[in-house]
Amino acid sequence: MAKNLMSLSGITYRYPGDREAVINGLDLAIPEGAAMGLIAPNGSGKTTLFHLMMGLLKPQAGVMTAFGRKVAGEKGFREVRRRVGLLFQDADDQLFSPTVLEDVAFGPMNLGMGRHEARKKAREVLSELGLSGYEDRITFRLSGGEKRMVSLATVLAMEPDLLLLDEPTTGLDHDTWKRLVAVLQASKVARLVISHDFEFLEQVTGSLHSLEGGKIVMDRGLHLHQHAHVHQHGANPHHH
Ligand SMILES: Nc1ncnc2c1ncn2[C@@H]1O[C@H](COP(=O)(O)OP(=O)(O)OP(=O)(O)O)[C@@H](O)[C@H]1O
């Protein structure tokens, strides 16, 4: 049986001041090699779930394990953040260095890589994402789509064991969308992808999950290629 990269059991989170828990007794297992899509309505708690998995929010109840260990306290989450790459829903939460190269090299340097090697790694990843020539661009002046791809570069440069992608296709033009699909299809890194873009999920994930009443609803045996009705219901308003 495949080992789990991460597993969540009975995780509950209620925002301060809210009456109801947005995540409510949630169970989720992410096995090695997983490529899971998470498609659920606005406000159902998808981003909250990612923030809980990264330790950016602390659950009121539940147990989380990552890479074979129970995650407890800040020390545990530091290890999680080293090995799990979160692409934030808003690229402005991700990017903070003046130039693109510095931003992409920051993660590897933070993991202990020397400056020269980190910059080399950053150039490689930028090239893989079709971003060669962006090295010296001023990060905050990039377009929305460019910021999203540079954000992905900052995540991939850290060679994560698990990718958590929060609506990665927002703002991407058709060619960039296709490039992102190709990059993810060529990558073996396990992933959990939040998206409202059904076509994208179909390309880069192998199973679909939803979030209802604060719990993960497993794919109910419905596999992506049998999901024609989702198209008809217009779950994805985008056309590529
Ligand atoms: N900091 C916060 N304080 C209070 N409530 C919050 C906070 N952040 C999110 N919420 C609420 O928690 C619920 C879930 O939000 P979340 O962003 O996790 O949803 P989502 O499924 O990612 O939505 P979307 O598809 O719109 O991105 C929403 O009702 C939201 O208003």
Automatic annotation (TrEMBL):
One of its GO terms (molecular function) is ATP binding. Residues 6-238 form the ABC transporter domain. InterPro entries: AAA+_ATPase, ABC_transporter-like_ATP-bd, ABC_transporter-like_CS, ABC_transpr_CbiO/EcfA_su, ECF_ABC_transporter_ATP-bd, P-loop_NTPase. Keywords: ATP-binding, Nucleotide-binding, Transport. Belongs to the ABC transporter superfamily. PANTHER family: ENERGY-COUPLING FACTOR TRANSPORTER ATP-BINDING PROTEIN ECFA1, HEAVY METAL TRANSPORTER. This is Energy-coupling factor ABC transporter ATP-binding protein.
